[in-house]
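Q: Is it fine to ask for two folds in a single conversation?
A: Yes, each is treated on its own. Send the first.
Q: Here.
A: Result:
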Amino acid sequence: MTRKPEPGSRGRRRVATVGFVALGAIALSSGVALAEPTEEEAQQRYEELQEELSALNETFNQAEEDHSTAQTELEDIEERLAEAQEDLDAMSGQVAGIAQVAYTESTHSLFTVLFDSSADAALQNVADLNFLSEGQEVVLADYVVEVERAEELRDQAATSEEGAAESLAEAESAQEEGEAALEEQAAVLESLGGVDPTAGTAADGGATTGGDAGAVSGDVQAVLDFARAQIGKPYVWGGTGPDGYDCSGLTQAAWAQAGVSLPRTTYDQVNAGTSIPRDEVQPGDLLFFYSESAPSHVGIYSGNGMMIHGSNPAKPLEEVSLSAYWDGVFTGAVRVG
């Protein structure tokens, strides 16, 4: 089981969101003049929303993964259930014949013998029908086992179907919350004059601490070439390409160019290699943010204090300076390959 964000965290963040965007509405409706958020407060709120969006996207991804797993499990169970039903159908003729014998030669009700107790008791009851031949006893015993197996498979299918529905609902909820957060972030960005506090370029003086020296290997170069070729494509909720990606979808697709199969979510990608300190990162390393145990954002270190990543659906995939914002929320790095 993969790690997930702390329970209840999404609800608390949504309360903060509603409170922030409602400020202007309260002032207008009440006629009370409230102070506009300062630039520092607006910047802080924008950054909070960036973290929230990252968490919501990974919640969406995990729910999608859980839904896919449940659907695959359901399909497997339904296939086995169909096989069990075929076996029951094939045995039904023999069982019907034995039932006729039971009706004419015994005071027992065959239905009661087989189904009015547990499977073990039913098998014992079959053995007690001393007028049956050894072959008939085997047929009935096999039939009881097959009925029990079919019932278990039906229960498993129902559980799997319920789990798939719950996961799908969670994914839809996360995306709805994300859309609301995006709307607020757009309003906050406007109050900042369109200057995104989480964006940065090489001109910002990206931190160069790290093992940047020397040529990268062919595999890493393939990863970087692919990632750079995606810059400008849209960030898509749950996107795994080729037309759009989210943060972990981009890293997964990029490292696939080097023959490395990364897990789907940031929660799992953080465990997909060797952990390294910030001052030893090299091009191609995965950088994680916001939480050390369950990071909700990931990017690819591209050298010279820069990172290629997908931030949120309001912006295309981009290459940014770590020093402008991201080093402040950096929580770990992993070397894969």
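Q: Second one now.
A: Result:
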Amino acid sequence: MPAQVINGKEIVSTYRAQIKEEVAKLTQAGIQPGLAVVIVGDDPASHVYVRNKAKACEEAGIYSEVHKLPEQTPESEVLALIEKLNRSGNIHGILVQSPLPKHISEEKVVEAIAVEKDADCFHPVNVGNLMIGKEGPAPCTPAGVIDILKHVGVDIAGKHAVVIGRSNIVGKPMAILLLRENATVTVVHSRTQNMAEITRQADILIAAVGKAKMIKKEHVKPGAVVVDVGINRLDTGKLAGDVDFDDVLDTASYITPVPGCVGPMTITVLLKNTLEAAKRAAAQSQSHA
């Protein structure tokens, strides 16, 4: 029997309806959540993402600003803009779209964002809080994956989850969030020997490696839940995930399509993180009042 293809549209619209409702309540109480996105240079994929984020904000009732800076903008100017956004009363979340041009330090930029406004959860303090299980934002893509699994009723506790990829943006935080849900977690990567042997043991397999159609059915245990985080553009111009969808379809029990599932869910968590940051700011201003 072929796998059940997880309906990303339905999950996203359910979560976004809840967010929209909460944003409306907060706005009525006098605080409209606000997100600022900074984009430097003209990477075409980045511009598509930023447009999608702005549109999603508008639909949810979140105030949004997009700051488009030319490729050659000096690092000092980008840092000055972040400092200004840190001080702005109507911005609760700040996101700097990567990749950044070579002359700008990604590390400096991430560390310049105020911890409480770090919508992506990349600041070292937020990463540390995530590691020790403290309340606060979680990185958008891994948190979105957990939401997808819960929505379709996958019981994560006690399962063997294998994460393919060890990036700071997806792989590492994904492993931490799965541990939080009481999964037994293995991380495989480019130096792993006998990768297929290990991935075939996974009840939940999460591919976040950035190589189109790399994961075939020989990597997948029959009945496994497969989540594809990858988004790669093929020579034909079409988008494909890290999983060879057609090859794996008859082996998995659940599978996420690319595009249309993890991507939109990532933006949904970004909206949620901005909303939560606005709520925290509102609570703080009341306690100082």
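Q: Anything structural to flag on that second result?
A: Two points. The chain has a mean pLDDT of 96. The longest strand covers residues 34-40.
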